[in-house]
Batch of 2 targets.
Target 1
Amino acid sequence: MNCEVIAVGTELLLGQIVDTNSSYIGEQLALAGIDSHFQTKVGDNAARMKSSVELALSRSDAVILCGGLGPTQDDITRNVIADVMGVELETRQDLVDKISAMFSQRGRQMPQNNLLQAQIPVGGEPIPVQPGTAPGLCCPIGDKVIYAVPGVPWEMTKMIDEFVLPDLRERAGITSVIASRVLRTWGASESGLAETLADEIVRLDETGEATIAFLASGIEGLKVRITAKAASQAEVDAKLAAEEAQVRSIIGDDLIFGIDDDTMETVVVDLCRQQGLKLGAAESLTGGLIGQRITAHPGVSDVFQGSIVSYADSVKAQVLDTGDAAAISDEGAKAMAIGAAKALGADCTVAVTGVAGPAPAGGYKPGTVFMATYVDGVAETLMVEWPFDRKRTREFTTITVLNQLRKRLMARSV
Amino acid sequence: MNCEVIAVGTELLLGQIVDTNSSYIGEQLALAGIDSHFQTKVGDNAARMKSSVELALSRSDAVILCGGLGPTQDDITRNVIADVMGVELETRQDLVDKISAMFSQRGRQMPQNNLLQAQIPVGGEPIPVQPGTAPGLCCPIGDKVIYAVPGVPWEMTKMIDEFVLPDLRERAGITSVIASRVLRTWGASESGLAETLADEIVRLDETGEATIAFLASGIEGLKVRITAKAASQAEVDAKLAAEEAQVRSIIGDDLIFGIDDDTMETVVVDLCRQQGLKLGAAESLTGGLIGQRITAHPGVSDVFQGSIVSYADSVKAQVLDTGDAAAISDEGAKAMAIGAAKALGADCTVAVTGVAGPAPAGGYKPGTVFMATYVDGVAETLMVEWPFDRKRTREFTTITVLNQLRKRLMARSV
């Protein structure tokens, strides 16, 4: 079974919107065990949409059209599918009722245009999962199938996850369960991890127990994804647990800061919460990025006190009381960490100073960074020379200094 | 003249990397006056790449292949193009010399693999612009043309801008110059601006003097792009200047914070620099986002003092000396702005507090935000109830409070 993705919208061709929908669908198809060999972007043009759908049907078993299900004149995905199927559109009263109910729930009257969304090619069915006003479509054509989902990401993902993927797997006769677990790591390079795991990857190739893939994800760290397939959820869970244990025993727990949706920030905040510690930061080089990352997650205010963004040396001296320590130095980072704990009333802190670039500063080349962590009255430091641009220097510094604190908190809780 | 884009790489189909290259190329083609009706993603598979290229050549005048020019076994774009052309690959000694010189400049020896990059289909030519080790290709086939550029974004953009677009325009006989100017706005909705400019857009449709497009860009504001075409650069510049003046007269200068690559942060920093003012911030709701945005730009340290991220109420009280003011209130924001000026030694500040969500807090629903600006000893406040999620609430608050300060600084400089 293979399935193509066609993203519909002139704005995609014009580069006004980046097509992240196809990437999401491609990733989910791969995880569901379904091949996807081509993905196409096409504008809101009936003839070109039709030729794209016909081509896709000629070389694949299924096609997912994404976009063009809105209520305006531009939205012609319904019409094109009917044309390809050689049928008419019919207005479905159940959809009219559903859509108008959505409007009345919001205290609004349904514009006449939205009636277009209740039209379905004869022989097709609306996708029963419908998060917004646009119904998705599931249209069999011969022994193949065309799906249409809205271009709005949260509507698209829900329909793909809850209807399209299970439906495709059923059509493909895939009864096995495929699942994956992501080990979130920091501290080793992709090639380094691949080398460490080389024998295990060969072993998995031979046994087929699971697969391992690496994904470098910047400030989110380096992800190691374990994927396994089995007859039942219980079996696949057992396989994943076994392989996770295997990978942990090879690369060591130290590198792994979390799994799946964990982030370095949430892991550090959780450790602080468990240990009854208040967290703070002092940022020069990162300019607020550490605080911004931590507070991007809701519910951290019981742990996170705040951050002193001390961009000017005078702020380091006056708010953080860094005294004689040079602004860009090991001693400077240490003094910032201690000063932040005091100013913010925090039990543990991270602090960073350095040269983000592109120009050198304080006698150091761009990428030179001094970091400090502070807990239990002790400040520890780390110096790194990143070979990166300004943005990556700031991002890599953020995850690295939080990882330093994580390791200290882990050691503390043993 | 129309031109398709084919992005090559299995990692694109698997969703491990989002294809931003095609979006960039699509945007540049549109700006250069060249239509692009289809964009395709295909994996590193010779047969499927070949069928994609042949299909593209059958319906378009030109094809840009992006990716697959590296030195590994997976990189087969060269081979596929030679196959489509029905020719062999030949090793070009000038490219061997160029690539090995690049390695020796970095003090490294060229791996044998990189010799593959010196191979060119007979009848094709390397693209003379070559920022990295991978040469691009320009391969005529009949009266059509295939270009190949690397998937590395900075190499791709340079080749597209400096060679592919001019070459395509020459082939298309386009001698006119197309250019655009982006007016960066904040304070009006897309539909609101479209309505205000409706008559002007109709007038432009009739006269063809220029076109106007809107692009909502989150924390970057709402962009209004004016595009014009003329016989020479001087003429197109004049047209853009005339239309910019026209648009400014209709929507008012107040909404327009900058042009092209300006950002709200750089505009505020520049105003502060011109007026000899030191800038600071106090952030609760945004958690460091304001500081992070300002310091994302190099060279702001002569103006930006820092930010006090006062997530805990105790930090508001102790570092910002907010006294009895409620943490989430108009008075609270005002006290934060004044306190930040004092703590940071800043002449002007912005401050934000509120409820980022998803849960309500302090008796306010999510999205409720209190902002303050402080300059010349006077704090002014603004309250907004955003209908957004946590992320957008924080982003829209950041650009809004900086815009408030911008307007005050503008008024001050008159």
Target 2
Amino acid sequence: MKPLARKTVIAGFGLIGASLAAAGKRAGVLGRVVGVGRSAANLDVARSAGLADETTHDLAAALADADLLVLAAPADACVRLLEQAVPSAPEACILTDVASVKAPLCAAAERLGVDARFVGGHPIAGGTATGASAADPNLFRGRTVVLTPSAQALPNARALVAGMWRAVGAEIVELDASVHDRVLATTSHLPQMVASALCAVAAAHGDRELVERFAGPGFRDTTRIAASDAAMWSAIARLNRDRLLEAMDAFGEVWANLRDGVAAGDEASIRATIERGAELRRRIDKP
Amino acid sequence: MKPLARKTVIAGFGLIGASLAAAGKRAGVLGRVVGVGRSAANLDVARSAGLADETTHDLAAALADADLLVLAAPADACVRLLEQAVPSAPEACILTDVASVKAPLCAAAERLGVDARFVGGHPIAGGTATGASAADPNLFRGRTVVLTPSAQALPNARALVAGMWRAVGAEIVELDASVHDRVLATTSHLPQMVASALCAVAAAHGDRELVERFAGPGFRDTTRIAASDAAMWSAIARLNRDRLLEAMDAFGEVWANLRDGVAAGDEASIRATIERGAELRRRIDKP
């Protein structure tokens, strides 16, 4: 495939950034790739594995002559990186990101006057491995990438970002940033809070040793994501505060109702809540 | 191994009852096995697979000359079955069960005057398959079985029930019934309520189609158990009401605190809750 960008800067060279570099180079859509990051060791891995043609800690310098900037860091870092990048990025450089919260990125792009060439993105993909050494050129194959271009986004910016993700095997869904954040608040950020709260309750149990001993498959599945990075999630909670609060309050209402049903021995009410959830859960498992 | 019981009645011949029959016969600790259940088709499977030597719908008739009665039904059915069995069971017949809530069974045994020969049990094992056709003689191998004998339980009753479970590969832990129910309220019943509430919230979302589409691995793991049987769980919620309420209220407090932290943008408080849970979650995964 013909390169869509002659020179791409990928800022943040962790699992997502490095995998995009690997997949984009293999597909031929990314020409020269410059990796920007803080860890010299990680950048060395990126260079020796051929994922980046050059690497640097200096985002401003890297951006000279760049056609495309991909911010591939946690959500809060993406906002900061966008602010740092805009003064140095060439006028024609297309800007995108991979953050799991989209409205703050789109707002920053508007505030910085670059919303015409900014197309926010969120690949619904990932894994527990980290760093450039975990790069997987197939990470995005068959996965969904949500793009959240504003009404001002130029056709060439939309085409470049969508074309890059399609070339690495992803399926594109375009959504308003606010819709994305409202949906992800329920499908991703709320489960994180619920799993963390459940583990915090277990940690405070009077028979904690027995609790750890009897934590069976149900407890383990329900709380798997509670082992995630606390700093990353507290930042997401800040960035998507209003949407997450809506979801948490919706949960709080269902919870209070379920609690009152248990207290009153109202089995019909308990069953109705469980059945409502079970119906959705079974649909999700259908092919 | 020498049979511990010449004639065992297993009332309820689903996954647990049928697997116990299979494992106990293979290990040689169960002699003659009589399967009692409601579904003629399921009892036919049990008999043709050699798991039961005879089968019947009539619990009272089955109990003639029995040395051991195992109630292998959901918790609420076990209480009813114990009430039905006691008038017909021989004086020397040892009684046990596999219910996931123990205090109501122990209380029923005391009320019925059989606490000396009743030893409550709860194998922490199971699966999604159901019925005698899913019988697995290795289901209990390496798993924990909690036994909750009262102070009145006779040594021969404790020895028979513990010996049976050890013979099929399980490890025995003895607990007070109330401690069992308090611990399981947090490790099993609370996660069920949390997962069900989370799915009920997702089901009521304004963008439900998108929610189903973006329910990724995190959402799926966190809610896997929400597809469980609503009638079984509403019965467990009734039988373990006070302990479950304690656990739900503990969760409600952590939840309110987390919600207020999100509302206030208090990242330090959010991080502290997530870290407290993550620390426990990581310990559980350690070998």
